[in-house]
Amino acid sequence: MASKKRKPGRPTRHRQGKGLSGNPQRRAQQLQGRDAPERLRQQPRSVSTSAPGSQRTWPWWAESHVRVLAQVRATEWPSRLLDIETLAGRLVGDEFHARVNVPGPGTGLTPSGWQRALAEKAMDAMGADLADEGKDWPRLWAFCCGLADEERAVELAAEAGEFAARGVSTVPSIPVPWYQPTEGSDALVVRDAYGGRFLLTAPFSDPTYPADANHWYAWDLDWCADDLVVAAGVHDSADAALAEWRGSVGPTAATAGFVPCPPELGVRLLAPALAGSLQCDSVWGDEPVEFFREVPRLFRRAAALTASLGRLLPGQRSGGLADAVSAAIEEFLNWHAGNAWNSPGARSAAEEALELILAEWGPDASPDERTFFACSPHRIETCASILRDTYEPDPVNNALPLLPDWVQWCARRTELNSELADRALSAARAEAATPASEHQVITEREAPFRRLE
């Protein structure tokens, strides 16, 4: 990767936005509105309007869509909607993964746009085949049902009404039993010991039997260095999802157990899995094929669960997270001033150093206080690397010596055990001992998917 021009001034947006200031008044202004429930309660946007330019198509899409629809026509489709979803996801996921991982288009690698256009092609092909009294329309109908997002579901419902009027029998049946969160059941959440990696799961039901769980759906969500959906999928139980997640996360998840997920936390955690998110409209390039196979379903289930949790949010804005983070930063600066900085101007220097660190300290809008103060070695190393790669050496070299104290304080605040705290502090000291230089070159980042801490 080519060298990147450094930023000489205060932190500006690199991955997530301007850092939180050490100055209480400036910090209060930055935090205002960051955790407004009004925004969280909004209904997820449809895929077709999720981002500027999302209606654009690319030349290679047509050939790619033809390949998928040929496989759809040649495939025997199951009768249960859950199995139809799985098969549709495999067909589209395998094709998109292949396109991402071969020399080729380089543009148009937008999962939501590519799948939206594919769904439109499939709907058109189904209508044409039905009009010609062909034999492929039932398979195309099943595929469309397995691929449908919110907008396409409305079109399918209209198409289903036409089928019913003509006396045509379809699989899945009419009306299509779109899965919804199970009535009377809680979403469950667990996080790793550092506090930045989550498993969120909930039971889903056929609306015909709204109180009976048909399956559990789970999202592996990494809020450490970026807000990412690492993986997602269907499970027979919450315990089965937890066992798989523990194997993916590694030792830091060994003793973690589920708790009921507060609605506001659940809505925040699912933000990367909604239409309009980075992963909906772009790719990292190193996603495993299993991730792309779940893309149609993970966004659809996330929208349904977000809507369900959103109805449980309180009507009044609390501002609790912003207030807690601001107060905690002030506590750190007071603690640090009493332990290390005794010279005139030391407090101001600490404020500036912390502001630079917080500019790249994980995602901009953390889902809760504990996540904001999570200090895993991965977050520490990523933060320091981005600082060296992005900003002029002098301010970075002024900020890095503060990193061990910040990490030590975060470890105490999040009550890390001594072993994990020592690992975090060792990582911070190693980064503080590695100064930035004028000739530093940005290197390829570590792949985020299925990362062991």
What are the key terms here?
7% strand; 6 strands; single chain; 18 helices; elongated; 453 residues; 6-stranded antiparallel β-sheet; alpha+beta
Descriptive overview:
With 453 residues, the chain is α+β, with helices and mostly antiparallel strands. It has helices at residues 24-31, 37-40, 59-73, 81-100, 111-131, 137-147, 150-166, 238-249, 263-269, 278-281, 289-310, 320-339, 346-359, 369-372, 377-390, 393-399, 403-413, 418-432, and strands at residues 180-181, 188-191, 197-205, 215-222, 228-235, 259-260. Strands 1, 2, 3, 4, 5 and 6 form a 6-stranded antiparallel β-sheet that branches. β4 and β5 form a beta hairpin. The protein is elongated.
Q: Indicate the structural class.
A: alpha+beta
Measured between the Cα atoms of the first and last residue, the distance is: 25 Å
Order of helices and strands: HHHHHHHEEEEEHEHHHHHHHHHH
Low-confidence stretches: 1-6, 8-23, 30-54
Mean pLDDT: 84
Overall strand count: 6
Gross morphology: elongated
Helix content: 40-55%
Quaternary organisation: single chain
Strand content: 5-15%
The number of helical runs is: 18
Radius of gyration: 24 Å
